[in-house]
Design a protein that fits this description.
mainly alpha
């Protein structure tokens, strides 16, 4: 592996320098990453495909039981995908830290549990707001609930930005406790919010453009499926082929594998942004202490 250790690139202050260094770490060690992560990538792709296909499947009858079963399948597959993604993150961190894989996977799983809990709280918050609006105020208009969902999603995303620092610090430094992810290190990330936000904005924007190209077939099928679901909801017969779940599964799985390198590059960007902030703090402390 080319020695692009974090200590060698801590001085990179600009977003462009960080993204370029992350790309070097990805491209110059491509064989290593493929060999190291292919099994996690395939497993995540299968789980993601099952979750997406189950979520988008239109039952032939309006059966609450069948809808609940499909929702449970989608949720379980999504959790499996999250588990495998955390394993992949732990495997990557083990390479970067030149350590054994298992302890780093354990740390990544604990961090994933915290992140999953945050998203569960966001979902509970959505229903806690939406259900009373329907029951007590008869506000069942779809656009109202969409606006509520968008608002909660934005607040959750803003809350998660400092975790890109505190979470990476927890993964990179073995002496850091899990509680600091939402504790003192979260406050450090909050103080560097703008820097972390710009890194997230640039990497997500680039990632979305690349993902839109790689996942174009999935996007077409998703739009067609949603339009068909609207027609079924209004009483029209479905016009989609019976093989739609298989097609959605295949497209989602292929898109997941194709976008895995984009995800890995984004992880490296966070890694080097954490290094930049860490160095800046060390330099400031040294200057204060003389």
């Amino acid at each position: 592996m080319n020695k692009l250790k974090i200590e060698n690139h801590m001085k990179s202050r600009s977003i462009s320098a960080i993204t370029a260094t992350a790309y070097q770490l990805l491209s110059q060690n491509m064989k290593l990453w493929i060999k190291r992560l292919w099994i996690w990538a395939v497993g995540t792709a299968i789980a993601s495909g099952i979750s997406y296909a189950a979520a988008m499947m239109i039952p032939p009858e309006k059966s609450p039981t069948l809808i609940l079963v499909l929702w449970c399948i989608s949720a379980v597959a999504a959790l499996v995908s999250l588990f495998l993604t955390a394993c992949a993150v732990g495997s990557v961190m083990a390479v970067l830290k030149e350590q054994r894989t298992r302890p780093n996977i354990a740390r990544a799983l604990r961090l994933a549990a915290v992140i999953a809990l945050i998203f569960i709280v966001a979902v509970v918050l959505f229903y806690a707001i939406s259900i009373p609006l329907v029951i007590f105020y008869q506000l069942g208009a779809l656009y109202i609930h969409i606006l509520i969902a968008i608002g909660i999603a934005l607040l959750t995303a803003i809350f998660m930005i400092p975790i890109s620092y505190s979470g990476m610090k927890y993964l990179a430094e073995d002496d850091v406790k899990l509680s600091s992810v939402l504790g003192k290190n979260y406050l450090v990330g909050l103080r560097h919010f703008w820097k972390l936000f710009m890194t997230a904005f640039v990497t997500v924007l680039i990632g979305m453009i690349i993902a839109a190209l790689l996942a174009a077939p999935l996007g077409v099928m998703t739009i067609a499926s949603l339009q068909d679901a609207l027609g079924v909801y209004l009483g029209d017969p479905t016009g989609m082929p019976s093989t739609l779940p298989l097609l959605l599964f295949t497209a989602a799985a292929v898109a997941s594998i194709a976008c895995s390198l984009v995800w890995l590059w984004q992880l490296f960007c966070i890694y080097y942004q954490y290094g930049s902030i860490t160095t800046r703090r060390k330099e400031y402390e040294e200057a204060i202490n003389g």
